[in-house]
Write a structure and sequence with these properties.
Length: 298
């Protein structure tokens, strides 16, 4: 019990963010995409699990929430196989929350909310859903978490083939749109779905990487070897070691310099804390980083 209490005390903020983020994603998926009804629209296309579920439903005609839950768990299993047990454990909580909220929103008590959303024009419902999903995903990504689902295929491609994540997500959503056309969705449905995809991407950018995009970290620690090795292995980032001398103590020190994207901030903090809680670390934000692992020179 003491270990559980200590874990909750140390991670309550991240747990709250995971709950809030998955609540936003699941509510938008349920009310704005899967169960939206108005005129010719029976559900709204979007990226991710919701869009894929609607396409499968158009082909095979099944229960939307059940299909979405099955797809989420299949992707979770695939992610655990290809990305490792540690990833699976980190994603498990998010997958449970998302599928749990999705089931919760089918209860009759939420019928009035669904009816209110159904009064919106399709474009407005699509924008609202994109805002909620983008915000939910963005705040989860900020703490190094994952919503599971269709986060997983791009992460697999990034790990094994070093494809850029943003491009993987773009190609993935593009393929979903093509699948929608093959499944005989009208062009009107597809265009409204594209709006939700663009809005979602925009809000992910706003919430996840608002302001500057990268951190330059400088770390001074007696455990510099362990910290340096963990950064190389766990973050897959290169480091530079500087030999310095303390101005007051006159002791020789080693300074680790590393550049990371904001989404790896939480992971870097955990590496430093686990190795040396007395380590000195400073962070600076920067707008553009060019070179291997970051932007290419044009």
């Amino acid at each position: 019990m003491k270990k559980i209490g200590r874990f909750l005390k140390q991670n309550y903020k991240n747990i709250f963010i995971l709950i809030l983020g998955n609540f936003l994603v699941a509510s938008a998926s349920s009310f704005c995409f899967l169960n939206y009804q108005q005129g010719d629209f029976s559900g709204l296309l979007s990226g991710g699990v919701s869009g894929f579920t609607l396409i499968l439903n158009e082909i095979f005609n099944g229960n939307l929430e059940v299909v979405a839950i099955i797809v989420s768990w299949i992707l979770f299993i695939i992610g655990t196989i290809f990305l490792g047990l540690q990833f699976g454990l980190k994603t498990l909580f998010g997958t449970i929350l998302f599928t749990g909220f999705l089931s919760l929103f089918t209860l009759p008590v939420f019928t009035n909310i669904q009816n209110e959303v159904n009064t919106l024009e399709p474009i407005l419902a699509s924008i609202l859903g994109g805002m909620a999903v983008g915000t939910g995903c963005g705040i989860i990504y900020r703490i190094g978490g994952s919503t599971g689902g269709f986060d997983i295929p791009p992460l697999i491609l990034n790990k094994y083939f070093k494809f850029k994540l943003s491009r993987c997500f773009f190609v993935q959503d593009g393929l979903l749109v093509l699948l929608a056309l093959i499944a005989k969705f009208s062009l009107n449905h597809v265009l409204v779905g594209l709006i939700s995809v663009f809005v979602c991407s925009w809000f992910v950018e706003i919430t996840q990487v608002s302001g500057q995009k990268c951190y330059i970290a400088e770390i001074i620690s007696d455990q510099y070897e362990a910290i340096n090795q963990a950064i190389l292995e766990k973050l897959d980032r290169g480091t530079t070691l500087f030999f310095a001398k303390g101005g007051y103590t006159q002791q020789d020190k080693v300074v680790i310099k590393v550049v990371i994207p904001k989404k790896q901030y939480h992971d870097l903090m955990q590496i430093v804390i686990n190795a040396d809680k007395n380590a000195f670390m400073s962070l600076q934000t920067t707008s553009d980083i060019f070179g291997f692992g970051f932007k290419r020179y044009e």
